[in-house]
Design a protein that fits this description.
There is one protein chain. The chain is globular, with a radius of gyration of 20 Å. The chain has an eight-stranded mixed beta sheet with strand order 3-4-5-2-6-1-7-8, with helices on both faces. The protein has eight helices and eight strands. The mean pLDDT is 86. Helix 1 (8-19) crosses helix 2 (36-49) and helix 7 runs antiparallel to helix 8. It is an alpha/beta fold. It folds into two domains: 8-192, Rossmann fold, CATH 3.40.50; 197-235, no CATH class.
Length: 235
């Protein structure tokens, strides 16, 4: 799934990031496949469109998504992490500066050390205006992951992505508690309604079934649904 960088919701999120002058941003979720990487990609592309230099760092060791295009964009010596290169998500055509997830045990252990990530951020900040961290799910902590709450704690802001209709209120509350206990600054919660469409979207989908037999009726109904102010209200 790909979200266009000019999407209205992405625009609102980026506005908050720019208004608060965030230089580092952590995106995380309770469970896997809630849309963290998709949102990170969209924000990075929006920042690039605004003329900012954005870097996406994939620290989702539970299910890494970024893959390199073998085109280095920055080089740092004495770094255990791979150097920034042109990266993208498999199956999508959007590319941006990023760092793929580390696979070496020594690198993972290094990033778990106190103040280790801050040193990387300090170096990256010399070349990039916005650093976006894509983390492992908060509920999937194990010996092979870097605790997402520790990454959030050293970031200027954190966004929690919640899949509507999947993540329960109790799970979301527990995730917020973990982040707060670590000292993270949560400035928003993003609801992914991919699997929970609005009434307007459901009506439009059903109306499309009329197209083969009743095209004129289908067009009238679509026009009515699109122009209906009540169905257009956000909840």
């Amino acid at each position: 799934m790909n979200i266009p960088p000019h999407n209205l919701e992405v625009e609102r999120i980026y506005f908050q990031i720019a208004r608060n002058h965030y230089k580092t941003l952590t995106l995380t979720a309770t469970e896997s496949r809630e849309g963290v990487t998709t949102l990170a990609t969209a924000i990075a592309q929006r920042a690039l469109l605004a003329g900012s230099r954005a870097l996406v760092v994939d620290l989702n060791l539970y299910h890494p998504h970024l893959e390199t295009q073998d085109m280095p964009v920055s080089t740092y010596k004495n770094h255990l992490l791979p150097n920034p290169s042109l990266v993208g998500v498999q199956g999508e055509r959007a590319y941006f500066p990023g760092i793929i997830a580390p696979s070496k045990r020594e690198t993972i252990m290094e990033l778990r050390r106190p103040n280790a990530l801050e040193k990387y951020i300090e170096k990256w900040s010399e070349d990039y205006d916005l650093i976006i961290f894509d983390t492992s799910p908060l509920s999937r902590m194990n010996a092979n992951n870097i605790p997402p709450e520790s990454i959030a704690a050293v970031s200027d802001g954190t966004l929690l992505v919640v899949m509507a209709g999947q993540t329960t209120q109790a799970q979301a509350s527990e995730s917020v508690k973990k982040l707060n206990d670590a000292g993270a600054h949560i400035f928003g919660c993003i609801f992914n309604d991919k699997n929970n469409p609005s009434l307007k979207e459901e009506l439009l989908r059903e109306v499309e079934r009329l197209a083969p037999l009743f095209p004129r009726l289908r067009n009238r109904l679509k026009k009515f649904i699109f122009s209906n102010h009540l169905l257009g209200l956000e909840i």
